[in-house]
Amino acid sequence: MKRLTGKIEAARIRSMETPRPPEGIVERIRALGCDTSLISDAMDDLGIGGTLPGSRYRPTIAGAGIVGPATTVRNVMSPRMSSVSTRAVEKRNGMAEMEAHNLASPGDVVVIEGVAGLSNMGGISALIAKHNGVAGAVIQGGIRDVGHSRAEGFPIWSSEINPLTGKWRIDTVEINGPVNLDGQHVRPGDLIIADDTGVCVLPPEFADEVVSRAEAQHALEARRVEAVKAGVHVADLPK
């Protein structure tokens, strides 16, 4: 049974379980190298939007690639900002992303609609996520302790890096509800694919068709690479 820490009231948790992906889909995406360009092209073919650019959501670990269902968190700036010093003295931490780490199943990706200008996840939080089997995190807003999370091998894609703590400034208002990252909606259970190029948000109901197209394109590109290396003219490359 999943155990909560008591940091957030149960009424704020939409679901204790993140929806699971279709059988075998995660493994098939891993076999493609978690290639967001391939997935994005396949989603384009089907008229499905769902990308976040790597120029804004930069990975903390170069070369990392992850795929897994989203366990979501929504943070807001505390309305009690005037009492930051009081909350700090009293150790009243309003952040509760660690509850998401506790609720997540191994292989899940924690996705946070966070607050700009401060940290929404630090090193201890990243360590707990890693220990619980979370594959990585995608965060709108800042993170800190990058050296710590990097040393633990826990990759994070975030829009900012900032040492200013969110502990006394942020309130986590919901876990496993819908979130919005720069206009991109993410539901609990949506498949998150991330690499150096960026992040794709793949609705699981389209996953099989998208991945099948990506697999076909991957095979074609492999043939083209071999042809180029063999000196084949561009006009004669496999189509």
Q: How would you briefly describe this protein structure?
A:
29% of the residues lie in helices and 24% in strands. It is α/β, with parallel strands linked by helices.
List the helices and strands and how they pair.
Blueprint: H1 25-31, H2 36-45, E1 51-53, E2 58-59, E3 66-77, H3 84-90, H4 97-103, E4 109-113, H5 123-131, E5 136-143, H6 146-151, E6 156-161, E7 170-175, E8 179-181, E9 184-186, E10 191-195, E11 198-202, H7 207-229
Parallel strand pairs: 3-4, 4-5, 5-6
Antiparallel strand pairs: 1-11, 2-6, 3-7, 3-10, 8-9, 10-11
Word description of this protein:
This protein has 239 residues and is an alpha/beta fold. The chain has one domain (10-204): Ribonuclease E inhibitor RraA/RraA-like (Glucose Oxidase, domain 1, 3-Layer(bba) Sandwich), CATH 3.50.30.40. It has helices at 25-31, 36-45, 84-90, 97-103, 123-131, 146-151, 207-229, and strands at 51-53, 58-59, 66-77, 109-113, 136-143, 156-161, 170-175, 179-181, 184-186, 191-195, 198-202. β10 (191-195) and β11 form a beta hairpin. α2 crosses α7 (207-229). The chain is elongated.
